[in-house]
Specification:
about 400 residues, alpha/beta, two-stranded antiparallel sheet, 7 helices, globular
C-alpha cells in the first residue's frame, strides 16, 4: 500500500483501505433520502439530517449527496484535507458543514465522480469514495498517523543502520584491537610456537632440592634409528610433577645420540627410541631427590654437587632435572650445549666409558670429564665440550 497504510479488512475493501459505499446517482440509481442518525465509515455516528429537499444536484437524489452537503465528493474532501482549508484553486467547490436551518434546494454544483482515482504523492492511484460527516477530521487523523508512522520508520531505520555501523567500527574490529569480541576483555596475542633450538636455549624453573612423586610416565612415541650400525633401543621416562616438557627432553635425546659427533660417529652405532617393549636402557628425567635415590641403588652419591648418574645396577640412566632446567656455572648461558653434554656423558657411562680429563690448557674437555663440577684442574684450563667426537 502507498506510504505503508494498511489495507482495509474484509471483502469489498477498496485499494485505499476503506469500506465500499454506494453513492446515489450514476450506475447505482436513485436512493431515497435518509433521516435520523446512522453509522458511517468505521462506525462513526453521523449527525441527524432533516428531510431532504427535492431531488436534484443538491438534494438527496442528486450526485451531491444528502441535503446540506452540497457538492461534496471524495476528491474535494481529499483536497481540502491536504490544502488545510486554505484558499482553493479555480474550479474548486467550497463546502460547509451541514446546516441546522430549514432545508431547501441547495445550489447546484458541478457533479463529481463517486469513486475517482486520485493520485497520492506519485504512488498508485487510490479509489476514495465520498464520505459523510467528519471526513475532514478523519482525513487529517489518517494523514497525521501516516506521517508519524513514516517518521518512526525513518528513525528506526536510522538507528538500525547506525548500530550496524557501530558494530563495523567496534565489534568486528575487536580482534584487531586485542580485545575479545564477546566479553570485551583484553585478549592475549597468539604466541608463535618456539622452535626446538629456542626451547633448548632457555632455562626453566625448578628447585635444587626438589623431590617429586617418584613415579614415572613414559614419553609416548617412536623414533626410528636412523643409522645402520649397532642398534640400541632405549625408552624415555619423566617423573610426574616436574612441570617440564617431556616431549622436548625425548627429542633432545634422540637428536643428540644420533648426531655424528656422538657415540654413533662413523656409523658404528645407532639409537632408536621406543615407548613399549623391552629397551636396552631407560633414560630418566627426575627431580634431584629422586635422582639421588636411584643413584644410591648403584652406590653413587649425587647429593654433594647435585649431579646426574648412570645407575648401572638398574636400567635407568638418571638425568638430574635441576641440572637439565638450570644448567651449571661452568657452562654459563650455554644451556643447549650443556644439555647435550649431560646426555652424552651419562650414556657414555652406560656404554662402558669412565671419567677422564683434558691434558693441556686450551684443549676441549673430554665429554667424560665431570664438566658439571669443573673445567679447570691442576692448573690446566679446559674448554667446554659436549661431544665424544667433536669437529676440529
Amino acid at each position: 500500500p502507498a506510504h505503508g497504510v494498511p489495507r482495509g479488512p474484509g471483502a469489498g475493501a477498496a485499494r485505499g483501505g476503506h469500506p465500499e459505499q454506494r453513492e446515489p446517482g450514476g450506475g447505482w440509481g436513485e436512493f431515497p433520502a435518509r433521516t435520523g442518525s446512522g453509522t458511517g465509515v468505521h462506525g462513526v455516528v453521523l449527525p441527524r439530517q432533516r428531510q431532504a429537499g427535492p431531488a436534484g444536484p443538491g438534494g438527496s437524489g442528486g450526485p451531491g449527496g444528502p441535503a446540506g452537503q452540497t457538492g461534496r465528493g471524495p476528491r474535494q474532501d481529499y483536497l481540502d484535507a491536504f490544502d488545510g482549508g486554505g484558499g482553493g484553486k479555480a474550479g474548486d467547490v467550497r463546502t460547509t458543514e451541514p446546516s441546522a436551518e430549514e432545508p431547501g434546494p441547495g445550489p447546484r454544483a458541478k457533479p463529481e465522480p463517486t469513486a475517482e482515482k486520485v493520485p497520492v504523492d506519485g504512488a498508485d492511484k487510490a479509489e476514495l469514495p465520498a464520505q459523510r460527516g467528519n471526513n475532514k477530521g478523519r482525513a487529517f487523523t489518517g494523514i497525521a498517523a501516516a506521517a508519524v508512522t513514516t517518521v518512526l520508520a525513518v528513525v528506526v531505520a536510522g538507528q538500525v543502520t547506525e548500530g550496524r555501523d557501530n558494530d563495523a567500527r567496534t565489534g568486528y574490529s575487536a580482534p584487531d584491537q586485542g580485545a575479545d569480541a564477546h566479553t570485551g576483555s583484553a585478549a592475549k596475542p597468539s604466541a608463535v610456537p618456539l622452535t626446538y633450538e629456542q626451547k633448548m636455549d632457555r632455562t626453566y624453573p625448578l628447585g635444587a632440592t626438589l623431590k617429586a612423586s617418584g613415579k614415572f610416565d613414559t614419553v609416548p612415541g617412536f623414533d626410528k634409528a636412523p643409522g645402520s650400525g649397532q642398534k640400541y633401543r632405549y625408552r624415555v621416562d619423566i617423573e610426574q610433577g616436574l612441570g617440564l616438557d617431556g616431549a622436548l627432553f625425548a627429542e633432545a635425546v634422540q637428536k643428540t645420540l644420533n648426531d655424528d659427533r656422538s657415540w654413533g660417529h662413523g656409523g658404528t652405532r645407532t639409537f632408536e627410541r621406543i615407548s613399549s617393549g623391552k629397551p636396552d636402557f631407560v633414560i630418566t628425567l627426575a627431580s634431584p631427590g629422586t635422582t639421588a635415590t636411584w643413584c644410591a641403588k648403584s652406590g653413587l652419591d649425587t647429593t654433594e654437587d647435585n649431579v646426574s648418574c648412570d645407575s648401572a645396577a638398574t636400567q635407568r640412566v638418571m638425568i638430574n632435572a635441576y641440572r637439565w632446567a638450570q644448567g651449571s656455572k661452568t657452562y654459563g648461558d650455554k644451556i643447549h650445549m650443556y644439555r647435550q653434554m649431560l646426555i652424552n656423558h651419562e650414556v657414555g657411562h652406560r656404554l662402558g666409558h669412565n671419567h677422564v680429563t683434558c691434558e693441556k690448557s686450551g684443549e676441549l674437555a673430554p665429554v667424560m670429564q665431570q664438566q658439571t663440577k669443573f673445567l679447570d684442574h691442576d692448573g690446566i684450563h679446559c674448554l667446554p665440550n659436549a661431544w665424544p667426537y667433536p669437529r676440529s
